[in-house]
Amino acid sequence: xxxxxxxxxLINTPDFSELDTAEEKKKKTLDHITFSGxxxxxxxxxxxxxxxxxxxxxxTVQRFESVxxxxxxxxxxxxxxxxxxxxxxxxxxxxxxxxxxxxxxxNRFWVFNRSPAHRDPQKVSDLLNEVKKMIVGSD
Length: 139
Hints:
Elements: E1 2-3, E2 6-7, H1 16-21, H2 23-34, E3 43-48, H3 54-68, E4 76-82, H4 88-96, H5 98-105, E5 109-113, H6 121-138
Parallel strand pairs: 3-4, 4-5
Antiparallel strand pairs: 1-2
């Protein structure tokens, strides 16, 4: 698929909690990534913010790191998704994990509102441009 003149291959992975406990799912996920070809250069870790705590975000990032190894975090951007940007706890949760985001992914994270009324193609383009810069910088 092409988005904003950038070739994108999407590999949908199971929930990371499943990868920790189900060795077969972990192997299948890693095989998908391996067989996706040499062009795989970046990870976009998508985390929904509704009803999630800072501890759950930390656990998700730690599980990602354990499955894909530490070096994968150098080319990872985290995309937090939400439906209601007015939820007060979202900002608070992000503030609680700010140190983790800085340490693990160099503060490369975005927050997108999934609501159809808030779709912003420019924000997607900006995210992809950041990913491109990250890839060039990691070579």
